[in-house]
Amino acid sequence: MDYVLRQATPDDAEAVVLMHTLAHEECYPHLLSPAFFAARRQAVPERVARRRNHLDVEDPRILAVDANNEVVGFADAGPGRDEDGPVPLELYSIYLLGRAQGMGLGTALLGAAIGESPAYLWVLEDNVRAQAFYRRLGFRPDGRRGLLPPEWEGLPEMRMVRAGQ
Description:
four-stranded antiparallel sheet, three-stranded antiparallel sheet
């Protein structure tokens, strides 16, 4: 599959939200309830409005677009949000549709969003595939754990850090 990486704009908000929704449905059906996914679908209009603001910044908001000009992945990063953040940069999220996985696109997205910089991220404790991906790219658990908010059904997550060289 051919793809292009580019900075997202507020005009991409709907495509990003729809791709993000589908990526969650593909990645987490064993972790989240059908009610969760129904609520996410119902909230698409509000999520698009919020996403427009999120995309209207200079921080990396990187899209992967396929040959049909469809968004198949994204990654975003910026200043760390944790008071005890181990490094200043946080990878907020990275998602790919299933059809775009396994061909190096995730690594390319991560590189475009944070380069080789020290960074940290949060990953679901039960997302072993994502943890393995991050480990290959130098991230390690730092022992910090948390729970997602109730609208995310309180799933446990852990923090991973890639320290500087």
